[in-house]
Automatic annotation (TrEMBL):
This is PAS domain-containing protein. It comes from Methylococcus capsulatus. Residues 137-164 form a coiled coil. InterPro entries: ETR1_N, PAS, PAS-like_dom_sf, PAS_4. It comes from the Bacteria. Residues 156-223 form the PAS domain. Signal peptide: none annotated. Keywords: ATP-binding, Coiled coil, Membrane, Metal-binding, Nucleotide-binding, Transferase, Transmembrane, Transmembrane helix.
Length: 265
């Protein structure tokens, strides 16, 4: 073996500058020079701290937001960036200290994480492409707000028409409680406002002799029937009045079972 090979072998055996005379071999000078240059660049630009800051931020976000979409990819990308940064640091460290097992272990971990990230990212791509963009979400929110405003206006117009009705119009829930009633109905039951009677059983206003017939009639309406019933009520102030109600079932949405009864008296 020539002298240059012996110097190279001796340098590799000593793993560093200790015990050597003269300059290190050119291959080590190249690695040392590039490592020093990269280290100086990274210290000046903050690349290594940035790598760790990004990876820690991704891992922290994935830990705190367990409901986030593609949470696993956040974890993998955070580990991938963390591992890549570590390989550069360990690589520079081995120029002075022979931490080759550590260097190999970190590189192996980086390879496994990067391979897992590459395997997982492509199957998730179709789902990721279907995620609405911020502009699309903004348009959806604007359309939804417009629909809500239109519905409120429609409800207000319907409320005005119902309040203008000279007869009693009311809605009763599945439990027999009063949900809503117009102004004419409030006058008939001698109530000052809807808050006085909302949520209370309508049967409590019916005279005892007619109460059982009234409750049976309501159960039939909730079962899907329509009908007419005459009964007598006692107002909140003690006044008595005969009522003839025409009731129909109503559902929250088309095809759903009845969730209440609407009546006109």
């Amino acid at each position: 073996m020539n002298r240059r090979g012996e110097e190279d072998r001796g340098y590799g055996t000593n793993h560093g500058f200790e015990g050597l005379t003269g300059l290190p071999p050119p291959r080590v000078l190249l690695r040392l020079g590039s490592g020093v240059a990269l280290a100086a660049r990274d210290l000046r630009s903050g690349h290594r701290p940035a790598y760790y800051a990004i990876s820690i931020a991704l891992l922290y976000f994935a830990k705190r937001r367990r409901d986030v979409v593609f949470r696993g990819m956040f974890l993998l990308f955070g580990l991938f960036i963390l591992a890549c940064a570590s390989t550069h640091i360990i690589g520079a460290w081995t120029v002075w200290y022979p931490a080759y097992w550590t260097d190999g272990a970190v590189k192996a971990i980086t390879a496994v994480v990067s391979l897992g990230t590459a395997i997982m990212v492509w199957p998730l791509m179709p789902q990721a492409l279907q995620i609405p963009s911020p502009r699309q979400l903004l348009e959806l929110n604007q359309n939804l707000a417009s629909e809500v405003a239109e519905r409120k206006q429609a409800e207000e117009r319907l409320r005005m028409l119902i309040d203008a009705e000279p007869e009693c119009v009311k809605t009763i829930g599945a439990d027999g409680a009063l949900l809503d009633i117009n102004r004419a109905g409030l006058r008939m039951i001698e109530a000052e406002s809807i808050e006085q009677v909302r949520g209370k059983p309508v049967s409590s206003l019916v005279v005892p002799p007619d109460r059982e017939r009234f409750e049976t009639f309501n159960r039939r309406v909730l079962a899907g029937e329509s009908g007419t019933l005459e009964f007598q009520i006692i107002g909140l102030k003690g006044g008595r009045r005969w009522m003839e109600t025409h009731a129909v079932p109503f559902a929250g949405r088309p095809g759903a079972p009845p969730r209440g009864a609407g009546s006109h008296a």
